[in-house]
Amino acid sequence: MASKKQILDQYRQELLSSNLPAKHRLESVRQLAARMHCAPGTAAAVLLDLCAENLIYSVPSKGYFLNKKPETRKKIGYLGNTPAPFIDAAVNEALVALMDHLESNKDVDIMHIQYRALQNIESGKKLLRNLDGLLLHASFLDDNSLLILHTFNKPIVVFGAFFQEKRLLCNQVMADFSTALKEFCQCCDLNKYARIVIMPTQTRNSTETAQRLVDYFNMTGVTSRVIIQNTNVTSGYGNVIFGHNLAGRFTEDDVKNSLFILLSDHISCGVYSYIEQNGLSPEMLPDILSVDNYEGHDPELQHNAFFTTIDRSIKECNIQAADLLFSELKTPSNHRTILQIPTKLIIRKSIRNIKKGNHS
After folding, report:
1. Taking the model in full, what pTM does it have?
2. How do 133-137 and 195-199 pair as beta strands?
3. 224: pLDDT confidence band, cut at 50, 70 and 90?
4. Most C-beta atoms within 10 A of its C-beta, which of 16, 76, 187, 191?
């Protein structure tokens, strides 16, 4: 004999998928019990539960009737990280906000899909078959997942990339660095630097950001003084060590004539640890611009934050990506949408070369 929950789920699905009009008279308790092969008490409890869900209603001495059927909830797949203590503070804070935002939408059901679920093509296709849309972090895109995603013909919104994703037909939300860079160039006299050293890591986000910085500086006429110095380190911890060692190698010429732009919070952490261990003041360091604002999201560092930074607006990008997918589910569009979210410049002690009137 089926359990009450099984009968409830089955009958609910029957009513939702039926073409019965609102106010249609439904089976009696005895009729439902006979059809479902259950006790009348179980059938009565099922009908009461459906009344509580507002799917049906009862009229004394007349029976049960179908309410106006609610719109079927959309099912979306979320392919990305979830909050965890080992993730850096800025990213974790943004993930918490994203999870809260997704769960607050009562019109959708969320299926969390892990990266390894997209490594088998056939099972991956089957997993996505009944979904109405995907919210996809760019880190989940690789040769295997792309084979599966290319067969998904419903809305996809990609977030987490600092470059336009061209391997997949999708909508996208990304950070716009030009807003903060423009403000930085207005606040800081770039002509005072003999060298502008951009330091990306091995990640695609980092290397693409480096190229965007070069392109922007090209418009300001300082490209000849721009140097890209890749860390050639793949691990986060390795980049922390790299940053620590980098700070120990700064020369007097670096201090006087260079601007270093760090494109990884791991490098910034390493530099910061060296500064703290050796009690260095800003005057003993070259000017440093950090593209992450990890200090601004760490309660232990906020009160004594050091790096002038471009905050990547991760939380805003995450929320806008979810909202873009919600919008696509309600009103599908044949046009590809690329939303660019402005980044924010935060001036702190690591840049001395600030024009008068622009200190925060």
Report:
1. 0.77
2. unpaired
3. confident
4. 76
Query: What is the C-alpha to C-alpha distance for residues 327 and 333, in angstroms, rounded to an integer?
Result: 9
Chain segment 65-120, per-residue pLDDT in tens: 999 766 678 899 999 999 988 788 889 999 999 999 999 998 898 999 999 999 89
DSSP codes of every residue in 87-125: S-HHHHHHHHHHHHHHHH-TTEEEEE--GGGGSSHHHHH
DSSP string, 49-66: HHHHTTSEEEETTTEEEE
Paired tokens of 160: 């987490």
d(CA 342, CA 339): 10
Domains of the chain: 4-66 (1.10.10.10), 74-176+315-343 (3.40.50.2300), 177-312 (3.40.50.2300)
Residue indicated by tokens 């699905």? 13
How distant, in Å, are the alpha carbons of 48, 158, 181, 352 from that of 343? 52, 18, 9, 21
Burial 172-193 (b: 16+ CB within 10 A, else e): bbbbbbebbbebbbebbebeeb
